[in-house]
Design goal:
Strand 2 (51-54) and strand 3 form a beta hairpin. The protein has one domain. By secondary structure, the protein is an alpha+beta fold. 25% of the residues lie in helices and 15% in strands.
Length: 191
């Protein structure tokens, strides 16, 4: 369980400590656990072996040939005629993600201090938000933030989920960290 602070204090001594925790969150926790799952062979392909190059020009765009994502990702089980569809228990959904794919729970701290509790048991009744690997990653370190996993929500952005994602970006504290959103009709395979 990774518990983040929800309010910032105006104490300059905490800035250095916060920066240290941010490095630990992204480099040690997220990427360390992602690499652990890669070593265990939980991904459908090795995204780090994809051909990648920087496109010449002032923008520095990066192009990647990721054949594995197209050929080996889970097929979509939904009709793609509507972006927002009701949750369907019979189809693959985030509650069916393997336990070994879950990296940690992610939520607000009750005492407004950052905590990490490795292997914290998941309380099904509280429907925690979790961070899991994407077994068909687009890039190195690609993880999924799954809000309130046991509420069986359709894959859409709501205010609470959006704020949770912003807290995750803040914890990462890295200009290279990116957030993305995917839905049905935009190549998402899970609702």
């Amino acid at each position: 369980m990774y518990a983040f602070k929800t309010a910032k204090k105006d104490v300059s001594d905490e800035i250095a400590a916060d920066s240290e925790l941010q490095v630990e969150f992204l480099d040690s926790l997220v990427l360390g656990e992602w690499e652990d799952r890669m070593q265990r062979g939980l991904f459908r392909y090795d995204v780090t072996a994809c051909e990648t190059k920087v496109i010449p020009g002032k923008c520095g765009f990066i192009a990647q040939l990721n054949e594995g994502r197209h050929l080996k990702k889970r097929p979509t089980e939904f009709r793609v005629d509507k972006v927002l569809q009701p949750f369907d228990e019979s189809k693959f959904n985030f509650t069916k993600v393997g336990q070994e794919e879950v990296i940690f729970q992610f939520g607000a701290s009750e005492d407004n201090d950052v905590h990490f509790i490795p292997n914290a048991p998941i309380d099904v009744d509280s429907s925690p938000s979790v961070v899991a690997i994407n077994v068909s990653p687009i890039e190195y370190g690609h993880v999924l933030l799954i809000p309130r996993i046991f509420e069986r929500l359709p894959q859409r952005i709501d205010r609470e989920s959006f704020l949770l994602a912003l807290h995750m970006a803040e914890e990462a504290g890295n200009t290279y960290f990116r957030l993305g959103y995917n839905s049905l009709g935009a190549f998402a395979t899970i609702n």
